């Protein structure tokens, strides 16, 4: 019999603080992370001692014994790539999926990450695929798969959030490719914090990484992103994976862009473009035709630029609108282009060319919802602004490529031959290129008139001859 007034004490729960950005640990809350320098990123999480039992992978599937070997003895065929059945995805991955690789696909909610991965799973021939979803039920996935279409007999789907139960499904199915949607919803019993926390994401990703390397099975993880646009969870998540892909685009537009942020098996300069449709994502093999208006009707403020994103050249339409400031303070607004760079170009236009636009509103838009960082579109931006300012249209048979310097000079750009070839392929009759680039170009190699320009003022005289007459 217990004495009167006795109390039953439970073991005190141990908590610690983790940085949500880099995963650094601290016994108390601190404002600025000493590891990554970010502010207010520490959150409190429950920490429990890990079980002394063996890893859940070896408990369920068994250990894959490996031993050190000389590099010269390694069989290169072990890294043979798997064709995903999607040319744009293959391009960004560097040729396809590599056995034992861990790929992280991030993007905004509703942008089409799950659709892209499920569409890939339904189009890979002769491969057994296991799709583990922690967000959707099997019925929801079935409805999406029927809408997309493809081979429904080679893809297994299961709705599961436990990493231990997921390894049981892996043992039963023995897949050739594993898909986890999403890593923030998967949790392990070895950690007592809630799913999506720093410790859960880190521990679950580490277990999946060990499985991928030991059994040489490619794994695709889908990850959420934060409001700043980075992958949610600790930064260590991006370090342990082999490839980080970013799926981006505006939900109000139908185009989607797949970029490679990190790739151990290929280039990070590649770019994949898709078009969102009711039946899934369609590959865009020639984006130039989709990014140009078909019937401009001689409108001012529109210019065509030969840009390069990644390793792919394409022509984009740059639109500008210049109007008198209605409220005294002029507005500067851009869509798909760096606002600071546009302000710099406007300063060059006013200082070096003499056009007074300091008291006017300037709005700039890159057609199609694209975000372009190529400095070669500077010339198209500054000519579109001037075209709108003087209300004179630029001949639609002309495109241009060139970086604008602070002194008003047109600087050379990289890979000018690819830009010229793309313009000639789409039927343009004339292209403005920097004078420095024109010296190394043979006009006879291209079915287009190449016009070298060295200054912004020279380009303006060529484009707006009617103004001088």
Description:
By secondary structure, this protein is an alpha/beta fold. The protein has 3 domains: 15-46; 80-285, P-loop containing nucleotide triphosphate hydrolases (Rossmann fold, 3-Layer(aba) Sandwich); 289-468, 2-Layer Sandwich (Ribosomal Protein S5, domain 2). Helix content is 27%, strand content 25%. The protein contains 14 helices and 23 strands. It has helices at residues 56-60, 87-93, 113-123, 138-148, 163-173, 198-215, 236-240, 287-290, 339-353, 378-390, 416-425, 435-438, 456-463, 465-468; strands spanning 15-19, 25-26, 42-46, 81-82, 97-98, 102-107, 129-133, 155-159, 177-181, 219-223, 243-248, 255-263, 271-277, 280-283, 302-309, 312-324, 332-335, 360-366, 398-400, 403-404, 410-411, 430-434, 449-453. The strands form 6 sheets. Strands 8-7-9-10-6-11-12-13-14 form a 9-stranded mixed sheet, sandwiched between helices. It has a 4-stranded mixed sheet with strand order 15-16-18-17. Strand 7, helix 4 and strand 8 (155-159) form a beta-alpha-beta unit. The radius of gyration is 28 Å and the shape is globular. The model is unreliable at 5-11 (pLDDT under 50).
Arithmetic mean of pLDDT: 84
Helical percent range? 25-40%
Biggest pleated sheet: 9 strands, mixed
Specify the CATH homologous superfamily of the largest domain: P-loop containing nucleotide triphosphate hydrolases
Which secondary-structure class do the elements indicate? Answer: alpha/beta
Question: Helices and strands in order, then pairings?
Answer:
Blueprint: E1 15-19, E2 25-26, E3 42-46, H1 56-60, E4 81-82, H2 87-93, E5 97-98, E6 102-107, H3 113-123, E7 129-133, H4 138-148, E8 155-159, H5 163-173, E9 177-181, H6 198-215, E10 219-223, H7 236-240, E11 243-248, E12 255-263, E13 271-277, E14 280-283, H8 287-290, E15 302-309, E16 312-324, E17 332-335, H9 339-353, E18 360-366, H10 378-390, E19 398-400, E20 403-404, E21 410-411, H11 416-425, E22 430-434, H12 435-438, E23 449-453, H13 456-463, H14 465-468
Parallel strand pairs: 6-10, 6-11, 7-8, 7-9, 9-10, 17-18, 19-22, 22-23
Antiparallel strand pairs: 1-2, 1-3, 4-5, 11-12, 12-13, 13-14, 15-16, 16-18, 20-21
């Amino acid at each position: 019999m217990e004495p009167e007034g006795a109390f039953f004490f439970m073991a005190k729960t141990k908590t610690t603080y983790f940085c949500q950005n880099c995963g650094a640990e601290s016994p108390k809350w601190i404002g600025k992370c000493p590891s990554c320098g970010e502010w207010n990123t520490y959150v409190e999480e429950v920490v429990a001692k890990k079980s002394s039992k063996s890893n859940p992978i070896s408990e369920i599937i068994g250990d894959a014994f490996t031993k050190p070997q000389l590099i010269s003895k390694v069989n290169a065929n072990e890294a043979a790539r798997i064709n995903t059945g999607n040319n744009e995805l293959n391009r960004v991955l560097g040729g396809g999926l590599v056995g034992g690789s861990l790929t992280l696909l991030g993007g905004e909610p509703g942008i089409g990450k799950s659709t892209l991965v499920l569409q890939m799973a339904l189009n890979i021939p002769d491969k057994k695929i296991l799709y583990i979803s922690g967000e959707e039920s099997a019925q929801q996935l079935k409805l999406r798969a029927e809408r997309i279409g493809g081979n429904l007999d080679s893809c297994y789907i299961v709705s599961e959030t436990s990493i231990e139960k997921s390894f049981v499904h892996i043992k039963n199915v023995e897949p050739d490719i594993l898909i986890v949607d999403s890593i923030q919803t998967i949790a392990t019993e070895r950690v007592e914090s809630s799913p999506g926390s720093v410790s859960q994401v880190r521990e679950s990703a580490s277990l999946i990484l060990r499985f991928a390397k030991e059994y040489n099975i490619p794994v695709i993880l889908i990850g959420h992103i934060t409001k700043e646009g980075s992958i949610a969870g600790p930064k260590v998540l991006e370090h342990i994976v082999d490839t980080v892909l970013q799926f981006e685009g505006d939900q109000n537009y139908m185009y989607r862009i797949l970029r490679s942020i990190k790739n151990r098996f290929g280039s990070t300069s590649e770019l994949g473009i898709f078009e969102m449709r009711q039946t899934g994502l369609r590959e865009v093999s020639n984006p130039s035709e989709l990014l140009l208006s078909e019937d401009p009707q001689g409108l001012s403020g529109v210019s065509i630029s030969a840009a390069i994103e990644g390793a792919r050249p394409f022509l984009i339409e740059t639109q500008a609108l210049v109007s008198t400031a209605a409220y005294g303070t002029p507005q500067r607004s851009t869509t798909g282009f760096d606002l600071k760079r546009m302000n710099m170009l406007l300063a060059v236009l006013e200082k070096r060319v003499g056009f007074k636009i300091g008291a006017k509103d300037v709005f700039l838009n890159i057609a199609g919802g694209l975000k372009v960082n190529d400095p070669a579109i500077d010339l198209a931006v500054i000519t579109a602004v001037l075209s709108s300012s003087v209300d004179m249209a630029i001949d639609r048979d002309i495109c241009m490529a060139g970086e604008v310097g602070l002194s008003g000079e047109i600087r050379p750009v990289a890979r000018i031959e690819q830009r010229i070839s793309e313009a000639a392929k789409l039927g343009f009759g004339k292209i403005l290129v920097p004078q420095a680039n024109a010296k190394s170009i043979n006009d006879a190699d291209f079915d287009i008139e190449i016009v070298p320009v060295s200054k912004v003022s020279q380009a303006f005289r060529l484009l707006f001859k009617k103004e001088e007459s």
